[in-house]
Design goal:
Number of helices: 0
Helix content: under 10%
Structural class: mainly beta
Shape: elongated
Number of domains: 1
Radius of gyration: 12 Å
Oligomer: single chain
Order of helices and strands: EEEE
Bound molecules: zinc ion
Strand order of the largest sheet: 3-2-1-4
Largest sheet: 4 strands, antiparallel
Length: 55
Amino acid sequence: MLLHKDRQKVMIRCNLCGEKYTLVGKKGRAGQVETGFKQCLCNNERDFEIQEIDF
Ligand SMILES: [Zn+2]
């Protein structure tokens, strides 16, 4: 069973076009969140603001 403990909701905002994505990822040991998010609609792959949000 998956518990909310190891799942983290994040909001990813593209710094180029301002598009926002809300995703649920898995929190890694180093504290970073793995969401599988690859790129924005505008082809931006690296310039994002990532914010963790509570369920
Ligand atoms: Zn974008």
